[in-house]
Amino acid sequence: MAAALTMIFFVAPEDADQGISQKIFYIHVPIALTAYAAFGLAAWKALRVLWRGGERYDLESYTAVHQGTILGALTLVTGSIWAKASWGVWWSWSSNQLVLFLVLFLFYCAYFMLRFSVEAGPRRERISAVYALFGVALVPVSFLAIRLANDFIHPTVFTREGPQMTGSMFAAFCVSWLALLLLSYVMYRVELLGKRIDESLRELREALA
Amino acid sequence: MSSGEKYVAAAYVVFFVVVLAWVTILATKLARLERETAELVELARRRTDG
Q: What end-to-end distance do the CA atoms of chain B give, in Å?
């Protein structure tokens, strides 16, 4: 994270068009991409739940959705701050990219309501897995929205011709994304470990009672 | 501080506050698990002795 911050504030130049506010790009986009990765991981684990069954994959899928939702909330907040700095508004309903990301975020928020409304067991595992698999279909839609809609508000930085930025800007972006992925992975492992220990302790408590 | 700088600072502060809160919640949970493990070890030990 320290390397990413150094790159962002001391190496990458200021954007000629947006000025200093473009620095938000270096956390906003990596957070969004890491959220997509977390939802993708949740879907992969969900597929394994349906394929092989088992509490292990269910817990992994649930933890990944949890991570993705936190990162999704951060994407919306940082994006909103960037929107206010660049466009003068906190939110724009006319931007398909923003609305689709909000739909994706709300869809995954509903995952928790669904999950905790069903009693723990194989039925809940299957329902949660199917829901997580449906959700991941929204990820490419959300990602491609700005390209499909030719949105004039939300900028398209990554085009078929490559990233529309200087080499040092792209390097800062890559370091920032790598830092976010590492941070997210560590948090995922720690959270998963905590949940597993919690479950084992519950079983032990029941056995000792 | 210009208006652009304030928004940049706000975005980064929000990010670090959320990460800090996230780490704090996980640390609190792990501390609770450590406490519960110690309680169960004590319970198991009393069972064995008794």
A: 69
Domain, as residue range, for A91: 22-197
Yes or no, beta carbons of A85 and B47 under 8 Å apart: no
Is residue A14 domain-resident?
no
Residues of chain A falling short of pLDDT 70: 145-162
Residue A205 belongs to a domain: no
A71 Cβ under 8 Å from any chain B Cβ: no
Q: How many domains does chain A have?
A: 1
For A78-107, what is each residue's pLDDT tens digit? 999 999 988 888 888 877 778 888 999 999
Per the listing, tokens 């992925």 go with: A181
Give pTM, 2 decimals. 0.87
Of B3, B18, B33, the CB nearest to A197: B33
Q: Which residue in chain A has the smallest CA separation from B3?
A: A85
Residues of A in contact with B22 (CB under 8 A): 70, 187
Mean pLDDT over the full length of chain A: 87
Task: Catalogue the long-range contacts made by A6-13 (C-beta closer than 8 Å, 24 or more residues apart).
Answer: A7/A168, A7/A171, A7/A172, A7/A175, A7/A176, A8/A172, A8/A176, A11/A168, A11/A171, A11/A172, A12/A166, A12/A168, A12/A169, A12/A171, A12/A172, A13/A166, A13/A168, A13/A169
Residues on chain B touching A197 (C-beta within 8 angstroms): 33, 37
Is ipTM strictly over 0.85?
no
Mutation for A interface: B2, B15, B16, B40, most A CBs within 10 A: B15
